[in-house]
Amino acid sequence: MFKGLIGKKVGMTQIFDSDGNAVPVTLIEAGPCFVTQIRQIERDGYSAVQLGYGEVPERKLTSGEKGHLKKNEIPAVRYLREFRAKTFDVKEGDKVDVSQFAVGSHVDVVGFSKGRGFAGSVKRYHFRGGPKTHGASDRLRAPGSSGSGTTPGRVYKNKRRPGRMGNDRVTSQNVAVAFVDVEKNLLGINGSVPGPKGGLVVIKEARKQ
């Protein structure tokens, strides 16, 4: 059975369980999504379900995107994502929502982490930094030596150095669904999920249950 949705991270809050314990949850406005295409092994070489999410004015789409959606009379949507699946219980043109997930079930949430821009090695890789005394006023957050001199006479690739931090694809695996609100298209996910508020996330059935 196919289970998957595209959504938008709303933010974090807390709920209380039956024992009165505060449980941190992330709110995701998930769906409704439209099934824009079914990929088949015979035709495409693999099987998958393509979903569309985020209705926008038609003028914001290219002609190719409009034609792709009009085949199944689907409104203009901004995002298209594919979900690998061997069997489906949906067909092109269907609408899917949060009702396919149940409280207590486990999901994987895929998103892009917050972009931090150019960061130094202390912030990016938690380096200790240089000495805090003996006149080392400009070495406090310096990375230090990155290699030897004559041999190899260069810095090896993939050394931990300053550079762009964040904005990487991250998956929160096997997280529990805390609550489902079908009327408001809301999913409550136990704990945190990657990305900023308003960031796009993909929710699918957990692979490591």
Description of the molecule:
This protein has helices spanning 41-44, 63-70, 121-125, and strands at residues 4-16, 22-30, 33-39, 48-55, 77-84, 95-96, 106-112, 117-119, 163-165, 169-181, 186-190, 200-205. It is mainly beta and 209 residues long. β1 (4-16) and β2 (22-30) form a beta hairpin. The two termini are 15 Å apart. The model has no long low-confidence stretch (mean pLDDT 92).
Global morphology: extended
Strand order of the largest sheet: 1-2-11-10-7-12
Span of the ends, CA to CA: 15 Å
Fraction of residues in helices?
under 10%
The CATH superfamily of the largest domain turns out to be Translation factors
| Uncertain residue segments | none
What CATH architecture of the largest domain would you give? Beta Barrel
CATH class of the largest domain: Mainly Beta
Total helices: the number is 3
**What is the radius of gyration computed over CA atoms, rounded to a whole number of angstroms?**
23 Å
Structural class designation: mainly beta
CATH fold call of the largest domain:
Elongation Factor Tu (Ef-tu), domain 3
Question: So what's the oligomer here?
Answer: single chain
